[in-house]
Design goal:
The chain is an alpha+beta fold. The strands form 4 sheets. Strands 5, 6, 7, 8, 9, 10, 11, 12 and 15 form a 9-stranded mixed sheet that branches.
Length: about 475
């Protein structure tokens, strides 16, 4: 996209913010191709083909070109996430500012890049509630969280107001707010067409409302991390200053590398600590972050209130099939419950919270779905295959070559080797689980989720490896 096609109001805004010399460098950067970056799942992948590491994320790399991720089985196995490098700064902030087990809310979490980054950044014993208000986006979020394989997470599809009045208190709230999207202009032409000065005004009001809706669920002494993928002051410094004026929020300083070239506060007279990523300064897209702390005496220990009347209780008290426990490592550390036809496993220390969440919110998933009950049978779930809880010794395994792995991901039929026993079989690619089949001897029924299957008829000429 040529920077010459940008709206005049936007270019005037950026000239006023940056000054003549920096404005010129900024506009030249917008005419360059956007960098491609991936973040490895530290539980699944060891190395990456990228040669340059993202400075603020030890397990993230820039790629020289954009391969066809759709046809990489290791992408579907959750070995890495394709994420814009600047937004990985949220995980860096968590690592720096959160040092003890915490209850965290990622309020506007879809499609899941920041959520999966935060899951890796949190101290052991923490729990993350990953929420998305738009139902279709919440399903995408749930898929990406499932592929990441962590059990200390719940995915919800609820409104900010639901959290503010829930009585559940969080140590950290992350608001990656809906914004005017200026930082995505060189990647997304549609965001350019939708932008106007009025959209920035509208977004600023919406962002303040979202924060006001959830402020009461942040513990005294708790941390709120606010971010946008836009440059203007109205959606960044003005919102941070408003939090200080409205709630007495205290700005939090974040230590950054001097060679990272992260910009700061651009509003004269503002006391907010603002960290602004600009494409002519850092290798990434536009992104702005500020963190504030809620005043008051910090609350220690759990603060989850017992759920009251309201939502109908699910069937968590129903008997759990014994094989669900057999399929998981260290089942004595897990709490198993039934919701609908699904059997879930979650860490015992998080079971009371999980019950409270089911009472208060529209929960799409919690912990790991171990299996689906069909009559007297328990069918192992896709989330179990991709999780850190699976006991691989509980299943026969079949290693697939690249062509068969792609067939599996297209939900096509497979013929396994003669030596593979009948029953549920875990299929892998380069040792990484992809999912389950039910081996019937002459053929294998593909149990890959229909909604996840590769639909493209394109056939890549070669397999471009991103990680191992």
């Amino acid at each position: 996209m040529s920077a010459m096609n940008l709206p005049d109001d936007f270019t005037r805004q950026m000239y006023a913010l940056l000054g003549e010399n920096e404005y010129k460098a900024f506009m030249e950067a917008l005419d360059e191709n956007a960098p491609v970056s991936v973040r490895l799942n530290k539980w699944k992948a060891g190395t990456c083909s990228g040669s340059r590491r993202v400075a603020w994320c030890d397990h993230a790399y820039y790629l020289g070109e954009r391969p066809s991720f759709t046809f990489d089985p290791l992408f579907h196995a959750g070995c890495y996430y394709v994420q814009e490098a600047s937004s990985m700064f949220v995980g860096y902030v968590i690592r720096q500012l959160v040092s003890r087990p915490s209850l965290v809310l990622d309020l506007c979490a879809a499609p899941g890049g920041k959520t999966t980054d935060v899951l890796d950044a949190l101290p052991e014993g923490s729990f993350l509630v990953s929420n998305e208000v738009i139902k279709s986006r919440a399903r995408v979020l749930s898929e990406n969280v499932t592929k990441w394989g962590a059990a200390n997470v719940a995915v919800t599809n609820s409104s900010p107001e639901d959290f503010g009045g829930s009585g559940i208190m969080f140590d950290v709230v992350i608001v990656d707010a809906p914004c005017s999207g200026e930082g995505m202009f060189r990647k997304d032409a549609a965001s350019v067409a939708e932008w106007s000065p009025a959209s920035a005004d509208y977004c600023s009001g919406r962002q303040k409302k979202i924060i006001a809706d959830v402020w009461d669920c942040l513990k005294p002494g708790g941390l709120l991390i606010y971010s946008t993928c836009t440059y203007n002051i109205k959606e960044n410094e003005d919102v941070a200053d408003w939090m200080a004026e409205e709630f007495g929020a205290e700005p939090v300083e974040i230590s950054v590398g001097p060679d990272w070239n992260i910009g700061g506060n651009l509003k004269p007279g503002s006391a907010a600590n603002v960290y602004r990523f600009m494409p002519h300064r850092t290798k990434g897209e536009g992104f702005t972050l500020s963190a504030v702390r809620k005043t008051g005496e910090p609350v220690s220990g759990g603060s989850v209130r017992v759920p009251g009347k309201g939502r109908k209780r699910d069937s968590g008290s129903r008997a759990v099939p014994g094989m669900a426990r057999d399929w998981c490592v260290a089942p004595e550390r897990l709490d198993f419950f039934v919701s609908g036809n699904s059997v879930y496993a979650i860490g015992r220390e998080h079971a009371p919270l999980a019950a409270a969440l089911r009472e208060k919110f529209n929960v799409l998933q919690q912990g790991i779905c171990v299996g689906e009950q069909k009559g007297r049978d328990l069918i192992p779930a896709q989330s179990l295959a991709l999780s850190r809880l699976i006991d691989r010794n509980a299943f026969a395994c079949a290693e697939l070559d690249y062509d068969d792995a792609v067939r599996y991901l297209r939900k096509e039929g497979l013929v396994l080797d003669d030596g593979v026993p009948g029953g549920f079989v875990l299929v892998t690619f380069e040792g990484k689980p992809l999912g389950f089949v039910k081996h019937l001897g002459t053929r294998a029924n593909n149990l890959y989720p229909a909604e996840w299957k590769i639909k493209s008829g394109f056939v890549p000429s070669e397999y471009v490896r991103v990680c191992r």
